[in-house]
Sequence to fold (293 residues):
Amino acid sequence: PTLLFEKGRGGRRFYACSACRDRKDCSFFQWEDEKVSEARLRAREEVNRWKQQEYRNRFEELASVLHHEKKFCDDCQMLLLPAEHGAHSSHRTTAVTAAQLRRPSLLLRPLDNKKSNAQYLFTDRSANFLLDSLASLGYTKVLCVGTPRLQELIKLQKSRSMKSLLLDIDLRYAQFYSQNEFCHYNMFNHHFFGGEASSAVLKSFLKEVGEEKVVMVADPPFGGLVKPLANSFSLISQTWKDLQDSDGPTEMPIIWIFPYFFEPRILECLPSLSMLDYQVPAGLRNHVSGLVF
Fold:
C-alpha cells in the first residue's frame, strides 16, 4: 500500500510506502507512469493475504493447545505451537499464561522506529480514563485505530457491555485476536491487507443496532502526515454514515490523539474536530505527549 508523492514542486511523481518514511525500512519505489504487469500486481496482493492467513491459522490452532504447552518466543515475537518448540530451543522463550495472552501489548516489544511504526502505547491509567469517559457518554462500540492497549482493556472489562475492533498495521496482534476482533490495516491510505473480507468486518462493526453507539479512537504515529490520516478517518466516517438511518447523527464521533502543534493542519482537514484540554502521556519515555481532538 502506497501514496503518490512528487519530487519537488512540479517534479516527477512516484509511488512509495505510505507507512515508512525511510527507504531503509521499505524500499518500494515506482514511477507513476511505470507500467506494472498484472502478474506482479497479483503477487503483491497474495503476499499480504498469505501473511495474514498464516497468523489467522496460528490463532485457530493455538486455541486448542493446552495452556501448559503454550510458549512465546521473544526473539521471533510469536506464539509457538508445540511442534515448533524444538526449532526455537536456542531462542529466548517463555511459557505464557491465559492472563498474559489477554495482554499482548505487554508481551510484544513496541515497534518504536520513529520513521515507521513509532508504536508508543497508552498507559493503563490513560486507557482506563478514556474508557470511563466513553462509557459515561453511552458509547457501546469502540473502533480502536492504532490503539491496541485500549482494545485489551475493553476485552478485560467484561462487566461493561462494550465491544471493540482493532485496526492496526502491526500484524503480530493477529496471533491474539479473531478476524472479527482484529484487521491488518494501514491508516495512512485506508488499506485493508485482508481485502474485502476485512472491509466487511469493519462495516459489520460500524452498523449500529438498537441502542448501540460507535466511536473511533485513533492514535497515529506522531510524525505521520495529517492529510492522509484525515482522509482515511473521513472514509471510515463515511462508511459509518452510509450504514445509519437518515435521521441520525451526520458525523461519526472521533477521538484523535496527536501533538498539539498539528492543530491547524487537523482543523484544515477535519474542521468539525476541536482540541480538548486532555493530555495523554505515552507509555514509554522520551516521547511527546499527545492532546485529544
